[in-house]
Automatic annotation (TrEMBL), chains A, B:
GO molecular function ontology, one term from the record: uroporphyrin-III C-methyltransferase activity
Residues annotated as transmembrane: none
Pfam families documented for this protein: TP_methylase
EC number(s) per entry: 2.1.1.107
Protein name per UniProt: uroporphyrinogen-III C-methyltransferase
Keyword annotations: Methyltransferase, Porphyrin biosynthesis, S-adenosyl-L-methionine, Transferase
Lineage, top ranks: Bacteria, Pseudomonadati, Pseudomonadota, Alphaproteobacteria, Rhodobacterales
EC class of the enzyme, as a word: transferase
Entry keyword annotation includes S-adenosyl-L-methionine: yes
InterPro entries assigned: 4pyrrol_Mease (IPR000878), 4pyrrol_Methylase_sf (IPR035996), 4pyrrole_Mease_sub1 (IPR014777), 4pyrrole_Mease_sub2 (IPR014776), CobA/CysG_C (IPR006366), Siro_Cobalamin_biosynth (IPR050161), Uropor_MeTrfase_CS (IPR003043)
UniProt record similarity statement: Belongs to the precorrin methyltransferase family.
Pathway this chain belongs to: Porphyrin-containing compound metabolism; siroheme biosynthesis; precorrin-2 from uroporphyrinogen III: step 1/1
Length: 255, 255
């Protein structure tokens, strides 16, 4: 075997959870890695696919503990790649969708290290497949919005009012804690309380759960059913509901 | 081996093009299928993964020919599943994203046939990975919109004005022929001509091409570079461009 002079960094989409929703390319990269970094959202079954001699480093946070700061992750992957190692940074879902890949891409480039992004199945695709409801339906929804419930401290909150438009299908990532706010914003912007909502918790995993509700009952449903992240909230404002009332009774947590 | 009494239909995401961007689950379903239906957008390399004895049926259209009508596809997959066969309908990308899966789901359910959706990597994820530019960037874009350039005859054209909002990242599918219209609509709604655009043609295939341009030059670039579908047009309106002029010179095809 030839000695490698320079290493390689791959940001690899680990998919939504189920191990068999990995791509063949992701499997290849994991199996040929010298070092695998992963966090809480990546299934341990997937990390186990690494070869026996590969180093595995957990960089996520658990309740009550701190995650690795991003800068520490960046420095580690660059240092290891400079040693000639093949580094895989596993990202839940698809690295390009709320995967915060920018920092790692920038760090690798600044160090002159080759970086590859391996796309994955994003959680919204897996959730839609599980409930057999397409993200876009001809005639009813022509745009599909991926958005997140969280904003970085100091960032302006996302402007949700413009999403409240007939023909829009929305998937909210990591928005369980913000469901009341999302509901209130969309209703205030004129979306009907009758807009159908599908909540898919832990899509593609053995403990996946699907709950159907409406925009008007969203926050109440999340509270009474004890929904937790990771979950996808699908909110649809179909064209056929255009003009429906937005002020039908709201969930008690919506205010 | 036991005789199966009822068959099974799987709508399987074939991913964006490259065979190794199939998921392990998709590979499993293709390899265990008795019948595989596919269209023009699915790579022949993927269809070849079916076992030797499996029937392969091309249901797509080619230039100057008619595609199979959807109703004919629906009837065929239901009839074959009723014979006890395992039917795989391959869909380019992810079946839930502009995959027109509703009709097949409805037909299967009406006939009491079990239907499974196997999610896939959608073209936008593959294109973003290829150019190593995340679909969402913290602080700059908080919503990511998947939309299409085409509308069904008789449908209202998509309302693109509401997309022209700072903080929005857009991926247009199948929009090459409508690029002038998209450009004009977004500029008219106030999006700056300087909004960066990445065109990714045939993402993940050996003939993939990436062209960087701006919203103001979009249609002209597509014409002069001879871009054709399948292509993804990424148009970003970052928050940092809010307030920039929208009336800088436009491409000559934009009017």
């Amino acid at each position: 075997m030839m000695t490698r002079k320079t290493g390689h960094i791959a940001l690899v989409g680990a998919g939504p959870g189920a191990r068999d929703l990995l791509t063949l390319r992701a499997l290849n990269r994991i199996q040929s890695a010298d070092l695998v970094l992963f966090d809480r959202l990546v299934d341990p079954d997937i990390v186990e696919l690494a070869r026996d001699g590969a180093e595995r480093i957990y960089v996520g946070k658990e309740v009550g503990r701190c995650a690795w700061p991003q800068g520490r992750i960046d420095r580690l992957i660059v240092a290891k790649a400079k040693l000639g190692l093949r580094v895989v940074r596993l990202k839940s879902g698809d690295p390009s969708v709320f995967g915060r890949a920018c920092e790692e891409i920038t760090a690798a480039r600044a160090a002159g290290i080759e970086i590859e992004i391996v796309p994955g199945v994003t959680a919204a695709s897996a959730a839609a497949a599980s409930i057999a409801r397409p993200l876009t339906e001809r005639g009813e929804t022509d745009s599909f919005v991926l958005t997140t419930g969280t904003a970085r401290p100091g960032d302006a909150a996302p402007d949700r009012a413009r999403l409240a438009h007939p023909g829009t299908s929305m998937a909210f990532y990591m928005a369980v804690q913000r469901a009341g706010e999302v509901q209130a914003d969309l209703l205030a912007a004129g979306a009907p309380a009758a807009c159908p909502v599908d909540i898919v918790e832990r899509a593609s995993t053995p403990t996946e759960r699907h709950i159907a509700t409406t925009l008007g009952q969203l926050a109440e449903t999340i509270a009474t059913q004890g929904v937790t992240n990771p979950a996808i909230l699908f909110i649809r404002y179909p064209k056929s509901l255009a003009g429906a009332l937005s002020d039908t009774p709201r969930g008690i947590f919506a205010a």
